[in-house]
Amino acid sequence: MSHYRIAVIPGDGIGQEVIPEGIKMVEAAAKPFDVTFEWVEFDWSCERYHREGAMMPEDGIEQLAKFDAIYLGAVGYPGVPDHVSLWGLLLPIRRQFDQYVSLRPVRLFDGIACPLAHKEPGDIDFYVVRENVEGEYSAIGGIQFEGTEREIVTQQNIFTRTGTDRILKYAFELAMKREKKHVTSATKSNGIYHSMPYWDKRFANMANHYPEIQTDQYHIDILTANFVLKPEHFDVVVGSNLFGDILSDLGPACTGTIAIAPSANINPERQFPSMFEPVHGSAPDIAGLGIANPIGAIWSAAMMVQHLGHDDIHDVMMGAVESTLKAGKALTKDMGGNANMQEMMAELMAHMPS
Ligand code: NAD
Ligand code: IPM
Ligand code: MN
């Protein structure tokens, strides 16, 4: 019998709606197996910020450290500036637990109308491997002469050798396990003088260790164009924190909706808990309407159980997602249907093995 303790942070907006559905799917899928879960909920959010002046308690990170994994909805809501809410909760978790890999699969499912012409399931099936703790995301810099015509703002990017090499290595190791064995590097070394030429150099160095892997690199501008024009080209795409963020919304948009996209914030050495969350945000425009697509949260939960060692439960969950989408009966609005979240959940549950 395996038992796991999961810290649950539904967070803001539709995070609070989709996370309970992800938990229901895990519980239903885990039933035939010898596995139990304890879900411990934390109400850390913008609501807490308004009430108590902080997104999470001072010892929040310490509290989370004891769990086997963290399952998070979304952070950020109008009323609290985004950089305050995100640097008060989501980003410190990624950083303190050294979750330096953000693994974001992109897949076109059977049954979903692809916005790109002439693309079939199988044509879009790749991973974005995003550096998750350094790069362009930094709080280093500041403002001088504030409030005057002479205002100067600086923002520091951080690229360490350790940080760059370990994310590149993760991408190459992932590609080694895949059929195409192909890694694409996202860069911008024509315009960004120091960090991106450095990234290219470390990429070329890492590629030398993997002669079986085919590699290429694109500047981020033409890379976004190629996501749209020839998504079938890609297998594993590795990028810095900001480039990976952008590519991991664009990729899923090319498969019909960003709302199904999952992400795993992984600490591969397992010194700290990893965190699983949909790629999408709190969607204030539809929060409270009960029409959110729960699949991003469900697929993220499936990645979480897989990370904990249970491919079997993962496969049951993803089987239900695949057959529900293929049946195409209860799709939410973002996918062109008119089902609400509960109608889609009923369909997903009906596609679980009894
Ligand atoms: P968003 O992902 O919340 O929404 C973008 C669009 O996609 C909206 O029209 C929304 O309705 C739609 N959408 C998103 N998820 C959906 C779902 N599950 N079902 C159906 N439609 C869905 O992005 P945004 O508007 O840029 O951000 C809103 C807030 O969320 C901001 O505060 C932002 O900082 C935050 N955010 C948080 C995370 C996170 O916690 N990981 C990720 C992205 C954005
Ligand atoms: C994501 C989100 C976050 C990020 C924001 C909310 C800070 O967009 O998880 O993709 O940029 O990492
Ligand atoms: Mn994002």
Automatic annotation (TrEMBL):
Any GO molecular function: magnesium ion binding
Top EC group: oxidoreductase
Top-rank taxon, per record: Bacteria
InterPro entries named among the record's database cross-references: ICDH/IPMDH (IPR050501), IsoCit/isopropylmalate_DH_CS (IPR019818), IsoPropMal-DH-like_dom (IPR024084), TTC_DH (IPR011829)
Catalyzed chemical reaction(s): (R)-malate + NAD(+) = pyruvate + CO2 + NADH
Cofactor: Mg(2+); Mn(2+)
Record key words, sorted: Manganese, Metal-binding, NAD, Oxidoreductase
Gene3D superfamilies: Isopropylmalate Dehydrogenase
Family label: Belongs to the isocitrate and isopropylmalate dehydrogenases family.
Name of this protein: D-malate dehydrogenase (decarboxylating)
